[in-house]
Write a structure and sequence with these properties.
This protein is α/β, with parallel strands linked by helices. It has 3 domains: about 5-65, no CATH class; about 75-300, TIM Barrel, CATH 3.20.20.70; about 315-380, no CATH class. Helix content is about 30%, strand content about 20%. It has 13 helices and 15 strands. It has helices at about 20-30, 35-40, 50-55, 110-115, 125-130, 150-160, 175-180, 180-185, 190-195, 220-230, 250-260, 285-295, 365-370; strands spanning about 5, 35, 80, 85, 90-95, 140-145, 170-175, 205-210, 235-240, 265-270, 305-310, 315-320, 325-335, 340-345, 360. Strand 6 (about 140-145), helix 6 (about 150-160) and strand 7 form a beta-alpha-beta unit. Helix 6 (about 150-160) runs parallel beside helix 9. The protein is globular.
């Protein structure tokens, strides 16, 4: 990728002062920095609050003690290094330890903090596990970023997965369309490979990670068109990040930009409470208000996103609120019996994660409320 030179040492940057470099070494000594000249070129360095800068550039606030190394307890669902099976129909492969850039809010910082990581080491063993579980119909390649792999390596994985009759979709989770679209533009063998594996009943999905509308440059748009022309189905997901996309107008613009490009919004994630993530996190209830206000500004396919938490017990959708209560539903559940379960918590405006709520309104209390004629959908909200 001749048009993108990677940078992992802030001392080599000319866009910040020596004093700032000295201060930020305290952060980069703990949580690594990585970007490239293309992405750094999107930053308005005269604006200290530039959202692209905040997304990729270290902040001293990251040193505040907070969060967990594995906030979604992925270790609990790890079958062998690099293979997770949390949801019945989906297997997840951590195919790469390398990213095109390190998002400051990364929830898998543990992969970069230790030489012993959870990255896939034995693809054949993972493939045998998937073959022996016919309930697995789709596999997510993630990491790190799978598009940091060479196309032949990526093809090896996809070909192996599609050799399993019950695997019908392979998803490639990537932020490289944002960080470095030249990965696609400069390698026509990548869309050609995707095209070869596309069938009427078998699809390659590319799960993009555009977090701010300014990331969708003309280069990114061309890369998206190349993948779409090859038969890849694109969708977009991103977390809600303080100082990046936490204004309704910004999030709405992102939804529209994606929908207009044929990339339907998929998920907006509650920022996971990983170590170093406090400055980037928005409380759940504030986040819900931002999310709903953004959706109110758009129509049609731009409204398809769901606001969710990737909790250790499942993917939990935030579905509503009243003056006293927050309403949640299991969009995906680790336990089959929790699938679709609806539950209510007493509000806590300081909650950043489900575990921060301390009182659940159980079915008995809910039935009592309804028996008294309380119509939850008529309670005044604000």
């Amino acid at each position: 990728m001749a048009n993108a030179k990677y940078v992992s040492n802030i001392d080599k940057l000319n866009c910040i002062s020596e004093e700032e470099k000295t201060l930020l070494r305290r952060v980069t000594d703990r949580y690594i920095f990585r970007s490239n000249d293309y992405y750094l070129g999107l930053i308005d360095w005269s604006d200290p609050h530039d959202p692209i800068r905040r997304l990729i550039f270290p902040s001293l606030e990251e040193l505040e003690p907070w969060g967990y190394l594995d906030p979604s307890d992925e270790g609990k669902y790890t079958i062998l290094p690099g293979l997770q099976h949390k949801y019945r129909s989906t297997a997840l492969l951590l195919a790469s330890k390398v990213c095109g850039g390190i998002c400051r809010y990364c929830f898998r910082k543990r992969l970069f903090l230790s030489r012993q990581s959870d990255i896939l080491r034995d693809f054949q063993a993972a493939l045998e596990y998937i073959k022996s579980h016919p309930e697995i119909t789709n596999v997510l390649l993630t990491g790190g970023d799978p598009l940091m792999l060479s196309t032949p390596k990526l093809e090896h994985y996809i070909e192996g997965l599609f050799s399993v009759p019950h695997v019908r979709t392979v998803r490639i989770g990537t932020k490289l369309l944002s960080f470095n679209p030249f990965r696609v533009l400069d390698d026509p063998s990548l869309p050609e490979m995707i095209s070869r594996f596309t069938r009427s009943d078998r699809k390659v999905y590319v799960v993009a990670h555009f977090t701010h509308p300014r990331e969708f440059t003309s280069q990114a748009a061309r890369a998206v068109e190349m993948l779409q022309s090859a038969g890849a189905i694109l969708i977009n997901q991103c977390p809600l990040i303080r100082g990046v996309n936490d204004r309704p107008e910004t999030l709405a613009e992102l939804f529209q930009t994606m929908a207009f490009a044929g990339i339907p919004p998929y998920y907006v994630f509650q920022c996971r409470p990983a170590v170093g993530n406090k400055p980037y996190s928005v409380p759940i209830e504030e986040g819900y208000e931002i999310f709903e206000a953004a959706k109110a500004r758009v129509s049609g396919l731009a409204k398809r996103a769901r606001y969710v938490m990737s909790h250790h017990s499942g993917k939990i959708e935030v579905v509503g609120r009243t003056r006293e209560f927050m309403f949640f539903k299991y969009h995906r559940a680790a336990r089959e019996e929790d699938s679709g379960r609806f539950f209510i918590m007493r509000r806590n405006h300081r909650a950043y994660w489900l575990d921060d709520y301390d009182q659940i309104v159980d079915d008995y209390i809910l039935d009592m409320m309804l028996a008294k004629g309380t119509e939850l959908n008529s309670v005044a909200i604000y």
